[in-house]
Design goal:
Aminoglycoside 3'-phosphotransferase, Chain: A, domain 2, binds ligand LMANGFYV, glycogen metabolism, 7-stranded antiparallel beta sheet, ATP-binding, globular, binds adenosine-5'-diphosphate, EC 2.7.1.175, 18 strands, alpha+beta
Length: about 500
C-alpha cells in the first residue's frame, strides 16, 4: 500500500464508519470496509428491489462489493491483473442521482499482493437493467440489502446517466467531496446523451454527440493529473494543438491533495488517428505502385510538437540542469534499465553498451541542458490529424511512472525520441509475424528513416532544438524509451516484444 493510500485508509477508519464487508473480517470485500457515506440514509427492508427515493448508500456499497470484486479484474484499465485482490476498501461513496435509475460515485481502494491502488467507479442502479446494456458493463444483480434483485452496472454505459454527469459539469456542481469545475467560455449543454468510447485505452471516455469527450480516469492518484494540468495550460494559452478543455471534476482526499477524476474536452469529429494513418501508409509498401508520402505529415507533426513545447515552456517552469543534475538524469535511466533487465532477461546482454550510452550524458558539452514540462508519452496514437492540422492528446505521461515523476521537467527531446520510436514501431509492425523478406525489411527501414528525418526537420523548422545537434542525448532518450517499451510489451503484448528488442539491439550496437 502506498503511503498516501495508507493514510487515507487510516483517516477513514478513524472516522469510525467501518461497516463489515460481507466476507467478514479478513474476507476480500472490505475486511475493514470503511465506506465514508457522504449522503443518503438507510432504508432497510428486503425482498423486491426498491430503487427510487433516497439512497441507502452504505448498504448499497456493501452489497455491491462482492460483485465489484468479480467484475474489476476483467476490466482493461484494471492494473492489478494476475494479483489476487485481498481487500476492497470504499473511501468515498457519493450519490450523484437518486431515484430509478440511481448513480453512485465510488472511490475504491483495491488491495492486492503488490500493494493497493485507488480506482474510480460510477455505479448505475436500476430495478430493470437499461435496454441494450453490454454484457461487460453489467456487474450483476444485488443479492441482499435493501436493493436485493436490482441491476448493478457500470454507469458509463448508460447514456442517460452520462447525460446527468455532463449536467453536473455544466452547472459546476458540488457533491460531498466531489467538485465539478468549468473553464470560462460558452455554456455547456446539459442534455446530450453520452456513449462510452470504443478505443483501446487506459481510462474510459464518454463521447457526447460530436461536441465533447469526457475522460474518466480510472486509477486515481492524489494531485492534479498532468493531463489536466498541461491541457489547461495549453488551452489557456490559446493553443489549437490540443482539444480545448471545457470542464473537469475532482475529489477531496483525506490527508492528500485533491485528485483529478475526469476531464471534458472538445471532441474532434473529423480527426484521424496518427497510428492508423501511419500503418495504412506502411502497408502500401507491400506492392502499391504509388505509396503515399507520409513524410509530409511527419514534418507537420514535428512542427506541431515544437509548437506545443514552446507554449509549455512559456506557461510552466523551465530549468537548466547543472552537471550533478544531468548525472542524476543519467543515473535514473541506468536504474530503469537495471529494473527492466531484472524483469526481462533478453535485455541483459545489452546492459554494458546501454549503460555506456547513458554515461555519455555526463559529457562536458551536455551541462546546461534545458528541461521543461513535456507530453511524456508521445506516440503516433496520441496524435490526431484534423482538417486544421495535427492535434496532440493525452498528456498524462507514462502510466507506469508515479505522478510525481511525470511532473518533473524533462529535456523536450524526450518527446521527440518517443515519436521517433513510434515511426520505428509502425515500420516494424509491417514485418511482425511474417516470413523474413529482406526486400520488404529494407523498404520498411527506409520508410522509418525517411519519416524520422522529416519529423526532426519539422520540429527544428518550428523552433525546436535540432535533434541532430545532440546525438548522445537523443540516443540515450531513445534507449530509455525502448527499455520502457520492452517492459510494457512483456507485460501487455508479449507478441510485440521483438519490436523494442530489435531497437535495443540497434541502439546498443550504434556508436
Ligand atoms: N478530443 C478528442 N476527439 C476525438 N477523439 C478523441 C479525443 N480525445 C481522445 N480521443 C480518442 O480516444 C482515444 C483514447 O484517448 P486517450 O486520451 O489517449 O485515453 P487514455 O489515456 O485512456 O489512453 C484516443 O486514441 C482517440 O482515439
Ligand atoms: O496510449 P497509452 O498512454 O496507453 O500508452 C501506452 O500504450 C501504447 C500502446 O498503445 C505504448 O506505445 C507503444 O506502442 C505504440 C504502438 O501501439 C507505438 O506507436 C509507441 O511508439 C510505443 O511506445 C506506450 O508506450 C504505452 O505507454
Amino acid at each position: 500500500m502506498s503511503e498516501i493510500s495508507r493514510s487515507q485508509a487510516h483517516a477513514h477508519r478513524d472516522a469510525g464508519t467501518a461497516p463489515r464487508g460481507p466476507g467478514g473480517p479478513g474476507g476480500p470485500h472490505g475486511a475493514a470496509g470503511a465506506a465514508r457515506v457522504v449522503a443518503g440514509h438507510t432504508q432497510g427492508g428486503h425482498g423486491r428491489p426498491r430503487v427510487g427515493g433516497s439512497l441507502a448508500v452504505g448498504e448499497l456499497v456493501q452489497a455491491a462489493l462482492p460483485l465489484i470484486a468479480d467484475w474489476l479484474p476483467g476490466q482493461r484499465w484494471y492494473a492489478g491483473k494476475g494479483q489476487a485482490i485481498t481487500g476492497l476498501r470504499p473511501l468515498t461513496a457519493t450519490p450523484l442521482l437518486t431515484g430509478d435509475p440511481a448513480m453512485v460515485h465510488l472511490l475504491l481502494q483495491v488491495e492486492h499482493g503488490g500493494g493497493a491502488d485507488l480506482y474510480q467507479l460510477l455505479l448505475g442502479l436500476r430495478t430493470e437493467p437499461p435496454p441494450s446494456l453490454l454484457p461487460e458493463a453489467s456487474l450483476g444483480s444485488l443479492s441482499h440489502g435493501p436493493y436485493d434483485g436490482a441491476a448493478l452496472y457500470d454507469a458509463v454505459h448508460d447514456p442517460e446517466l452520462m447525460s446527468r454527469l455532463l449536467g453536473h459539469l455544466a452547472t459546476a456542481d458540488r457533491f460531498g467531496p466531489l467538485a465539478f469545475r468549468r473553464t470560462p467560455g460558452p455554456g455547456l449543454p446539459s442534455d446530450l446523451l453520452g456513449r462510452a468510447g470504443t478505443a483501446e485505452q487506459s481510462n474510459t471516455s464518454v463521447i457526447y454527440g460530436t461536441s465533447f469527450i469526457l475522460k474518466l480516469f480510472r486509477r486515481i492518484s492524489p494531485g492534479t493529473n498532468p493531463d489536466l494540468e498541461l491541457s489547461l495550460a495549453l488551452s489557456r494559452a490559446g493553443s489549437t494543438r490540443i482539444p480545448r478543455v471545457a470542464a473537469w471534476f475532482e475529489s477531496r482526499l483525506v490527508g492528500a491533495e485533491p485528485a483529478t477524476l475526469g476531464l471534458l474536452q472538445r471532441f474532434l469529429p473529423d480527426a484521424e488517428d496518427g497510428w492508423e494513418l501511419a500503418l495504412d501508409q506502411v502497408a502500401r509498401l507491400k506492392g502499391d505502385p504509388s505509396p503515399g508520402n507520409f513524410a509530409v505529415e511527419a514534418h507537420r507533426l514535428g512542427r506541431a510538437t515544437a509548437e506545443v513545447h514552446r507554449v509549455l515552456a512559456r506557461a510552466l517552469p523551465v530549468a537548466k540542469l547543472d552537471r550533478e543534475q544531468t548525472g542524476r538524469l543519467a543515473t535514473a535511466m541506468a536504474e530503469r534499465l537495471d529494473v527492466a533487465a531484472a524483469a526481462v532477461p533478453a535485455l541483459r546482454r545489452y546492459r554494458p553498451a546501454l549503460h555506456a550510452a547513458f554515461r555519455q550524458l555526463t559529457a562536458d558539452h551536455l551541462t546546461g541542458l534545458t528541461v521543461q514540462r513535456i507530453h511524456g508519452d508521445l506516440h503516433l496514437g496520441q496524435a490526431m490529424r484534423t482538417p486544421h492540422g495535427w492535434v496532440l492528446l493525452d498528456f498524462e505521461g507514462e502510466p507506469a511512472k508515479s505522478v510525481a515523476e511525470r511532473r518533473v521537467p524533462q529535456p523536450a527531446l524526450r518527446d521527440v525520441a518517443a515519436m521517433l520510436r513510434s515511426f520505428d514501431y509502425a515500420a516494424a509492425h509491417l514485418l511482425a509475424g511474417a516470413e523474413p523478406d529482406p526486400q520488404l525489411a529494407h523498404l520498411a527501414a527506409s520508410w522509418a528513416a525517411r519519416n524520422r528525418t522529416a519529423y526532426c526537420a519539422g520540429y527544428t523548422a518550428a523552433g525546436g532544438t535540432d535533434p541532430a545537434g545532440c546525438p548522445e542525448l537523443l540516443r540515450a532518450l531513445e534507449i530509455d524509451k525502448a527499455v520502457y517499451e520492452v517492459v510494457y510489451e512483456a507485460r501487455h503484448r508479449p507478441g510485440w516484444l521483438p519490436i523494442p528488442l530489435t531497437a535495443i539491439h540497434r541502439l546498443a550496437t550504434a556508436t
